[in-house]
Amino acid sequence: MNLDISEIPFSRFGSYFCISKEKDSENVYIRDVHGGDEAPSKLFKITLLKDGIEKPFDIVATETSLKLFLHEDEEHYVEMIIPEEDELHIEVKGVELRLRDKKVKYDTLIELEDGIVEYHIYPKELKLKITELTGELSINAPWNIIGNDFVDIRMNDGHFVVESYRVVSQKKEYKPFHKGREKVEQEYQQWFANMSKGIQTYRSSIERAAYITWSSVVHPHGILQDHAMYMSKLWMYNIWSWDNCFNALNLGEHYPELAYSQLKIFMGMQDASGAYPDFVNDKFVSYNCIKPPIFAYTYEKLMKKNDYFKNEKRVRLVYESTKKVLKYFDLYRTYPRKLPHYKHGNDSGWDNASLFHKGMPVEAPDLASFLIRSYDILSKFAEILGEKEEATSFKERADSLFTLLMERLHDEEGFFGRVGREGEKIEIRTSLILRLPLIIGYRLDRSILDKLVANLEDEFETNYGLATEGVKSKYYKENGYWLGPIWAPVTYLFIDALRNNGYQEIGDRIRDKFLNLTLIGGMAENFDPITGKGLVDTSFTWTSSVFLLLLENKSMED
């Protein structure tokens, strides 16, 4: 694949290093994604010099190698690879590579020994060791009382390594450059073979999706105890709850331990109240927003993908953790005689959907449906685990929530929401989120289901799939985040619900539209429902994972 690093950063499985190009300035930076997307990520601006003069350069990037060469002169170049998770290797030939820092006042560079320097980057609590294996390394970093004024690193004709660590580096032997390139190529080819579904029509999308999922993983560090698949290494470099579930589903068949880790990260950081974090990274955990409970839904599907997930201890862990999540919604998100509520649109994952335009808190039918589905699944897990009384109890709780859902949030026109402590009816009904009760279609009367599905086709289906706001709605907004654009996880939930409830033809049509959409918009965070253009973050893992899941579904049918 010819990788456009302004759209998809160059990185590798397990690494916090990445290299990307800014669209506006066209500057190229070596970056580091420790600390999440609120932390500064730029380490060094890259320039190439010839005879001391900055020269324009071209970029050729593949999944495993990034090459910068003088414009129309491929014989003089810099090549970068990441053969190990914390090692960026640089080969310089016939040019001078200049790295200019993006430092703050306490950042400090010191010489450790001949040809080796250490750069302490204070805001990231990170150290870099820069080693000259061959060639010439030169540093200009004038000291000014509490730190270097600036850091200017030059590399000439040779092999250099930039290695990151938190406290101290360990002595090690570095692989020759060509051996490192061979190693990372072999690792990636194995991943690609497991992600590729063999439908050549979607080859370009398969290449993008496979690479984005592989290269967006970071290794255990700080509070992260397992390898974690970030949403992106472009802008959204955290792991968010409910995003993680779609990535886990895609990993379940060939990488069950990695899939399980995506769930375990959140179960291990579950608050005493029962709430999962909104997002985590290696340094920070946030409980600002609490996403809908879909871990049980995810795990039930994983059990069908791989027997690894049928292990009783793992089922028990998910079971007990989900019980705490559901108790959290009962105790802390439910007013008397009402349904559980969202405190912010971000809780739902549909941050700015029109349902939330009247205020908070909101009783939403999607949240009630996720809870009902979770109780139904927990009842099945309880049977597996021999918890007969709890199985009955969970089934009864699902029944009572369903009765309340239909009493409070459904009328002859369909589903709606309620706002505020008094539960005032929300008249805005143009968001796709109000159609998510389709996920409990097995509980709905066929007349209600038929009306829901007909409404999807009439108001939300476009040439590329399901818009998140009715395209004729006054709230519809071009590039409006959840006010129109198509999102992968929502598409997956609707396709799954349609196919499971007797609407396979429609589900398959939406599936095929989404698969075709990726040929236009790539693996973006979301897509324009009219043009198919990829929007916002253009290197998103849950989009990639959903694409691969849907492609697998199509491959099995074909």
Features:
558 residues; alpha+beta; Beta-galactosidase, Chain A, domain 5; 13-stranded antiparallel sheet; elongated
List the helices and strands and how they pair.
Elements: E1 17-21, E2 28-32, E3 42-50, E4 53-55, E5 57-61, E6 66-70, E7 73-84, E8 87-101, E9 108-113, E10 116-121, E11 126-132, E12 136-140, E13 152-165, H1 177-195, H2 203-215, E14 217-218, E15 228-229, E16 239-240, H3 243-251, H4 256-267, E17 279-280, E18 285-286, H5 295-305, H6 312-332, E19 341-342, H7 345-348, E20 362-363, H8 365-384, H9 388-408, E21 410-411, E22 414-415, E23 418-419, E24 424-425, H10 446-460, E25 461-462, E26 465-466, H11 488-500, H12 504-521, E27 526-527, E28 534-535, H13 541-557
Antiparallel strand pairs: 1-2, 2-3, 3-4, 3-8, 5-6, 6-7, 7-8, 8-13, 9-10, 10-11, 11-13, 12-13, 14-15, 16-17, 17-18, 19-20, 20-23, 21-22, 23-24, 25-26, 27-28
Helix pairs in contact: 1-2, 2-13, 3-4, 3-5, 3-13, 5-8, 6-8, 8-9, 11-12, 12-13
Describe this structure in words.
The chain is an alpha+beta fold. It has a domain at about 15-185: Beta-galactosidase, Chain A, domain 5. Helices cover about 35% and strands about 25% of the residues. It is built from 13 helices and 28 strands. The strands form 7 sheets. Strands 1, 2, 3, 4, 5, 6, 7, 8, 9, 10, 11, 12 and 13 form a 13-stranded antiparallel sheet that branches. A 4-stranded antiparallel sheet has the order 19-20-23-24. A 3-stranded antiparallel sheet has the order 16-17-18, with no helix packed on it. β17 (about 280) and β18 form a beta hairpin. α8 (about 365-385) runs antiparallel to α9, α11 runs antiparallel to α12 and α12 (about 505-520) packs across α13 (about 540-555). The longest helix has 21 residues, at about 310-330. The protein is elongated, with a radius of gyration of 25 Å.
